Amino acid sequence: MVSIIILTKNPGKRFGEVIRQVFNQKTEDDFEVIVIDSGTTDGSLSCLENTSVKLIKINPSDFGHGKTRNYAADIANGEFLVLLSQDATPANENWLNELIRPLKEDEKVAGVYSKQIPYEDASIMEKCFLSIHYPDTYQVKEKKNKKELTLKDVFFSNVSSAMRKELLLRFRFPDDLIMSEDQAWSKEVIQHGYKIVYNPKSIVYHSHNYSLIRVFQRFFDSGASLKDLNLKAGNYKESIKVIYEEIKFCLKELGLTKFLFYLPYVAAYEFMRHTGFILGQNYKRLPQNLLPYLSFHKYYWNKNRLEK
Question: Are 119 and 18 in contact (CB under 8 A)?
Fold first, then answer.
């Protein structure tokens, strides 16, 4: 049995399509759907009426990316746990089968994650980001003779992922990270000899149209969490390579004339992304009362956390 777990808070109109696509899956596996809501007020959970979804409500103050997913694992009945973001829509009826297939085929596979493709309204930089990080090639990540694992070695995404319940009960998501609990879990299981698989045949639509301020805040949080995980995002040469791939992608998608028109935005996006990430990596050196203003997840920087 499979437990599909979705964490929600004001998921919006798109959530109805997410639920419809979940129940449209062609699979021989029995599955349950668990929605854990932390304070929705926009009425979007009405789409769960007359469905078999198990809705559990928690206090917003009790929410945490790792903490709430651990709670979900404790109450789920499935042998395999599927984590799906509230704004990630399965792209076809084979999403679930392809997501759990590697777990069935190899007992050393601890987790699998899906390919993410952008919605039609996604910005050019969001499309670029997804094309670079979610290619069409099947990938297996496992422990190698390296002194130190990098983010690339353990990259994993809970936007759409599947894992063995027994392993999540054994290797819990950290509950003291602002984000990147998925990378932390991946690093842990890989270090213990398990594999992480990226299967591009399991596909979800997922993208955001963040303002430049939001881009800064998201990458600030990413830098802070990776610093706490002691995970390096890459070296100078890899950063140059990513920028080169971004330029190549934008030129292909936009053409030269339109790319030149978008160039100021691309430059501003890269500035906000890198500045946010660098400041996040150095958050311990910054004034503590400034951190909530730099962060996307303001709830995290509470008094108790800052005093730790």
Answer: no
